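Q: What structure does this chain adopt?
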Amino acid sequence: MSCREKLGIFDLFKMLYKKALTRADSIINKQTQKPFDFLADESVMRSKDETFNFAKDLPALSNRWSRFLKYLALDQLYDMVTEDSTGKTVFK
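A:
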């Protein structure tokens, strides 16, 4: 593989990576514009063996981001409540 071909692959990777970052940023901004529905029966799967299934389309990816952002919010709320030694932290 020539140096020019290697640079072409790098340029393609860079373009696809930027496109994916822009898409993720757009999804995150859209998901955080409205309140989370914590009453929905959802789950987030975490894998210890580092396997990962890619979302099949944009709605599935958006749904995955939504569930992940809810998980992060709940995780932070849990930390806030458990770190409050006074027991006065209350969330509605």
